[in-house]
Amino acid sequence: LLADLELGGGKILPEPEDTLYIIDEAHHLPKVTRDHSSASVMLKGAIDWLNKLKESGDKVSNLLKSQSSISPALKLGDDCQELIVDMQKVVTFFENNKTGYFAQSLDNDNEAIYRFENGIIPSTLKNWAEDLAELSKKCINHTNKLYNQLIESVKDGDTAMYLAEALLAELGFLIQRLENFIALWSMFAKTDSEKGAPLARWVEYTRGKRQDFLLSASPIEVGFALEDMLWSKCEGAVLCSATVRALNSFDHFRRQVGLQSNDGTQYQAVNSPFDYQNKALLCIPQMQHEPSQPQFTDELIKKLPTLIAKDKATLVLFSSYWQMEQVAKALREKHKLQIQVQGEQSRQHIIDNHKKRCDNNTTSTIFGTQSFSEGLDLPGKYLTNLIITKLPFSVPTSPVEEAQSEYITAKGGNPFMSLSVPETSKKLIQATGRLLRNEKDSGIITILDKRLVSKRYGKDLLDSLPPFKREFN
What we know:
Blueprint: H1 2-6, E1 20-23, H2 29-36, E2 39-42, H3 43-64, H4 67-96, H5 98-102, E3 112-115, H6 123-155, H7 161-189, E4 200-207, E5 211-218, H8 223-231, E6 236-239, H9 251-256, H10 276-279, E7 280-284, H11 296-308, E8 313-317, H12 321-335, E9 340-341, H13 347-359, E10 364-368, E11 385-388, H14 399-410, H15 415-432, E12 443-447, H16 451-454, H17 456-463, E13 469-472
Parallel strand pairs: 1-6, 7-12, 7-13, 8-10, 8-11, 9-10, 11-12
Antiparallel strand pairs: 2-5, 3-4, 4-5
């Protein structure tokens, strides 16, 4: 869908004007759109494949032996050479500024990432980006010309398919790389509008077998793009998801996908047929420590054995791999508990083994992280005891999330309340949704995070959950 819209619509799928789109799991739409609109280029790696592109152009010219293919092949060779010279300048620029950009991470093995504040890059880099964007557009035109000439030659019977096949595949792959290359340099060359959010731009210093620099750019907000490409053009759209609302409101999602409160969009929250009051009990036990405190892990180790003992089929969700492993180790050693821990076996193996144990009427416990709180289906006796150790807040660690927080702060907003809390609300609903999978299911949900009671936003998070019977002790 996004690839089609990017091409103007109606190229891969039917015309948007003639289409009713039904998008399920629509809460993923903002992130998927953002990822689709981002681009990355490995600098030294790109120099390698630009050399290959030059060679591929010559191969086509030699194979076709026609006057019409000589000119684009020569022009392609010249453009590639110019691009390589400019790319070498960019590599030298980052080599010379390595200590300035990555000072804190050069001494250790951490990811070395430098994000350009407010998306503003040095003027020399912006100038090179403009040149690289222009040149690479010429480059792709010559490559497309050669690709199409080769296809025509095969169709006309002038060139045997077995001779052209590998070369067509090679060119197709290089055209994809060029498209991404153009996208990256166009985003670095762009002057951000003062009215909208700036693009997030960053560079990563990679230290594998070969040291290189990975340049990336991504939009922070995609609402305008969706409005421009989809909502303003399509006949209609239906967006469905169990977690399209955050904090009992459609506002957060509406802002993310570029819909307005007065544009005729209609919203409907449909109540579940489940009898939450009688089928599930939500327990908030009294905890001494907040998850941010170092004693919290010890408190989990102390509290979990009694909570796990309440029912035979238990899923314990953690927000941190490290904490999950620490707790599992302690419970196995001290309490001799048999626990299946995410990461120690494949997801499918863990689920199959869990079901086998439940079928044999044996107690079974799974420890998992965020990926086990969405899309995991354990109906009936396979899950009767769900324990969430901590509210699923995620720290803005990716350059895009950091840039988004920076932009909201610059506008006088509060990134925690406008981003983190609504996102946590959605994740918490997903996590609690593991328990009741059909009308006959029942069980207990326990959340071991005192912030639900002690913080102002805790009430909002609780109120956005299904109407489980509640117990505070």
